[in-house]
Amino acid sequence: MKLIGMLDSPYVRRVAICLKLLELDFEHRPVSVFSDFEEFRKLNPVVKAPTLILGDDQSLMDSTLILDYVTSLVGSDATLAPQRADERLRATRLTGLALAACDKTVQIVYERNLRPVEKQHEPWVDRVSAQLLAAYAGLEAELALATPPVDAGRLGQAGVTVAVAWRFTQMMVPKIVIAEKYPNLQSFSVFAEQLRAFESTPPV
């Protein structure tokens, strides 16, 4: 398998880390959808990161769909999601909030970095920022009740996605999401980033 995309994308990074936690062999190719557009288009005409190219040259897109597929390749003992319905519900909620935070961070970055200053729309940025803060408020409240499992073998997709989202937002818009206001997220992120799967998959 080949994972195509840059690790500064939270979607690419969450897939890479989960593949490592599942102990699945893969080759990472850091091809950018921006600076390497034509090269990426040869690999996937849609130019969407992450793209996972399988051994028979079929390709998959969207981090959630990729993770859904790769979990089917491993034994029942290796999983990224809890089996109990109540635990699975919470993991799904955490994942949804974290992916929403990623989406809103990306929207702000695109507005600030890709759109000319004279065309940037402040009411839109304010609206997206409010959505971003709401997502992190929800995550902080969830983690105040209980943190995700704190060992690599049980971290799961939810824990990976929360930690990856937080690191990405703090890299891109730290002045909007102020770390000190989210002590539970900050503490969990510090723990997760020390795990081997995270350390070997830096967002650069």
From TrEMBL:
This is Glutathione S-transferase. It holds the Pfam family GST_N_3. One of its GO terms (molecular function) is maleylacetoacetate isomerase activity. One of its GO terms (biological process) is glutathione metabolic process. CDD domains: GST_C_6 (cd03205), GST_N_family (cd00570). PANTHER family: GLUTATHIONE S-TRANSFERASE YFCF (PTHR42673:SF21), MALEYLACETOACETATE ISOMERASE (PTHR42673). Signal peptide: none annotated. Gene3D superfamilies: 1.20.1050.10, Glutaredoxin (3.40.30.10). Keywords: Transferase. Residues 1-78 form the GST N-terminal domain. InterPro entries: Glutathione-S-Trfase_C_sf, Glutathione_S-Trfase_N, Thioredoxin-like_sf.
